């Protein structure tokens, strides 16, 4: 796949700082993943804690290259906001998928896998597999 066909990644957090930091970490740890489109969508428009459907939709549009968009979330209401956007059907790019994955480890796995030109299914599977990572 060409760079224009990479899966995009959206990282939704209740905190703008957390979303931006995880995006930076994932791209940094992924090494050669500079071409992977990753967008944070954190906090509210006013800078507070929470989630914003408008920010999520804008982030998804900004990373859409036609190969699909994987959306990872931090906590419950972020999941609900993404699910509501998906249910509306016209707010997110075609082939946008909410991925059930740990936020940090899943983001790294998604970006690494997307950098190889993998399809959306493979990117989502790699992120979800991060649940099995052992730390001790």
Provide a descriptive summary of the structure in words:
This protein is of the alpha/beta class. 45% of the residues lie in helices and 14% in strands. It has five helices and four strands. The protein has helices spanning 16-29, 53-63, 76-88, 103-115, 120-129; strands spanning 8-13, 38-42, 69-73, 96-98. Strands 2-1-3-4 form a four-stranded parallel sheet, sandwiched between helices. Helix 1 packs across helix 4 (103-115) and helix 4 packs antiparallel against helix 5. It is globular. The model has no long low-confidence stretch (mean pLDDT 93).
SSE run: EHEHEHEHH
Give Rg in angstroms: 13 Å
Task: Name the poorly predicted regions.
Answer: none
Helix count equals: 5
Secondary structural class: alpha/beta
Question: Main sheet: which strands, in order across?
Answer: 2-1-3-4
Strand content: 5-15%
Number of strands: 4
**Share of helical residues:** 40-55%
Topology of this protein?
Elements: E1 8-13, H1 16-29, E2 38-42, H2 53-63, E3 69-73, H3 76-88, E4 96-98, H4 103-115, H5 120-129
Parallel strand pairs: 1-2, 1-3, 3-4
Question: Can you give me a brief rundown of this structure?
Answer:
By secondary structure, the protein is of the alpha/beta class. Helices cover 45% and strands 14% of the residues.
List keywords for this structure.
single chain; 136 residues; alpha/beta; 14% strand; globular
